[in-house]
Give the backbone structure.
Amino acid sequence: MSNALDLVDVVKTFNPGRPNEVQVLEGVNLSLAAGEVVALVAPSGAGKSTLLHVAGLLDTADSGEVRINGENLAGKPDRVRTGLRRNNVGFVYQFHHLLPEFTALENVVLPQLAAGVGKGAARERAGMLLEKVGLAGRVTHKPTELSGGEQQRVAFCRALANEPRVLLADEPTGNLDPDTSDVVFDVLLELVRDTGMSALIATHNHALAERMDRVLRMDHGKVG
Ligand code: ADP
């Protein structure tokens, strides 16, 4: 089976040739095998978010290859990249970015409707995911009616709603107090393991990183 994700010699520079030039990715190589859960540890400013955006096709590399399911997406038209992203990549950010006017259930239903899933099936899957993360009793709550940890759990369900091949998470529990962070992180790992997807999870927290299959460190624009 092909890898879920490959980055090959990925280079990304902001403001090239200008005085405020920043070389962020200087030939990044990494691969995620099917079902592998990998930590990405680096100090703030090292380029983790940039790497995750390029890997998730939200941003383009200057050179190099980004392969999802073995398919190279570099240079493909936006339409193709958007379709591939929608069907294969789930994102979780430090802040949940849930839609405030919709309930927890609706927040998990909406991305499925956008991907063409029928309403009944989308509601059923959303309910199942929310139950898995311990929120069966909160499905009709809006984000402001949920705790920070609960909001983040809804965001995990939303990211997994369309059964992506790869989950990309940027400090997914970075906004929570340490105790809540541990519990919510367990929920995320269990969810990922249950579905058999691959995940690349950026974190500052070494204890959390050690619980993943492999730890990658990012330094001076390279990953090792
Ligand atoms: P991290 O997620 O590891 O904190 P980022 O990927 O957000 O790091 O940023 C890496 C570096 O690139 C930082 O020095 C940041 O200032 C710079 N940077 C990020 N985005 C841009 C941008 N759009 N334009 C110019 N510089 C940027």
Remarks:
- Residues 5-223 form a domain with the Rossmann fold fold (CATH 3.40.50.300).
